[in-house]
Design brief:
Pfam families: HTH_1, LysR_substrate. The structure is a single chain. By secondary structure, the chain is of the alpha/beta class. The chain has 3 domains: 84 residues, Arc Repressor Mutant, subunit A (Orthogonal Bundle); 100 residues, D-Maltodextrin-Binding Protein, domain 2, CATH 3.40.190; 105 residues, Periplasmic binding protein-like II (D-Maltodextrin-Binding Protein, domain 2). A hairpin with a 2-residue loop joins strand 1 and strand 2. It starts with a helix and ends in an 11-residue tail after the last helix.
């Protein structure tokens, strides 16, 4: 089994670019760092570095080990934190997954309230919509796929329906309307606010297909913050979930979409462990209450 401390030293050398820099960063001697590198090379049976001038540079195998060990080291760090919690008498830790618009709209106030009520609780927040994250959250706030929102080992709890809205410049010809049909946006220049092929993007494109057209994306912004700025600059319009369009600059306004309305459904997945998790259940109650009474948190989503 690989030694986590040696991996940490190895990653420090790869990240800093030299043995001496890693030693300075870690508070070790350069000799100790070199010994850890030699021991790790023996453990793995890999050539991790090669000479380059007076220094060293990672080999292809070394770079791959550094990249692949990132998540493992993150999980090891989480285990270290659990040990620290136990040693210092803190009662528990809650890992919460979320996607970006729910994170900005809901999580700050929810976590503030939760930790005020449970001061010994440590909350880890993980952006689980980012691909490649290997985490097991206690609660994961997710967008339900069209074929259902289940996940093995988790209880599925619906939270809200989040309609998509049109975000347009305030000087746009449609800006004076409170609502537009999706067909009204047919000939517009569109700005994407999600990754192509992602669930949100597929919802928009499939609903447009149902309305008889395919949107023309001139800009692939791929996330809503940048997309809103492109709209503010007058580059085009964007169709995004209302939750993502809560806070808009004065150059931009949002319009309801009708006939048909793109819609996404948001749920909480609660991990079933066979033992009580009071913190997870309490956060779930707060999420349900928030979406039953959306006026309590600005204008998140309608339940």
């Amino acid at each position: 089994m690989l030694d986590p401390h040696r991996l940490r030293v190895f990653r420090a050398v790869v990240g800093s670019g030299s043995v001496q820099a890693a030693a300075d960063n870690l508070g070790l001697t350069s000799s100790a760092v070199s010994q850890h590198l030699s021991a790790l090379a023996r453990e793995t049976g890999l050539v991790l570095f090669q000479r380059q001038g007076r220094g060293i540079t990672p080999t292809a195998a070394g770079l791959e080990l550094a990249a692949q060990s990132e998540e493992a080291m993150s999980q090891w760090g989480r285990l270290d934190a659990v040990v620290g919690d136990l040693r210092e008498g803190r009662s528990g830790r809650l890992t919460v997954g979320y996607f970006s618009s729910a994170g900005s709209a809901w999580m700050p106030e929810l976590v503030k309230s939760l930790t005020a009520q449970l001061p010994d609780l440590t909350v880890d927040l993980v952006l689980t919509e980012v691909t490649g994250r290997n985490v097991t959250p206690d609660i994961d706030i997710v967008i339900d796929p069209p074929d259902g929102g289940g996940r093995p080992g988790y209880r599925h709890v619906p939270l809200a329906s989040d309609p998509f809205v049109a975000v347009v410049p305030v000087e746009h010809e449609l800006a004076s309307f409170r609502a537009v049909s999706l067909a009204d946006l047919r000939g517009q220049t569109w700005v994407s606010n999600d990754l192509i092929g992602s669930l949100g993007h597929r919802i928009v494109v499939s609903t447009c297909a149902a309305a008889g057209f395919t949107p023309r994306f001139a800009v692939q912004a791929q996330e809503h913050h940048s997309a809103i700025q492109f709209v503010a600059a007058g580059v085009g319009i964007s169709v995004m979930p209302r939750l993502a369009a809560r806070a808009l600059p004065r150059e931009v306004t949002r319009l309801r979409i009708t006939e048909p309305t793109p819609m996404r459904h948001i749920s909480a997945l609660v991990r079933e462990t066979g033992r009580p998790n009071p913190a997870a259940e309490h956060l779930l109650e707060m999420l349900l209450d928030l979406n039953t009474h959306p006026s309590r948190r600005g204008r998140p989503v309608a339940g």
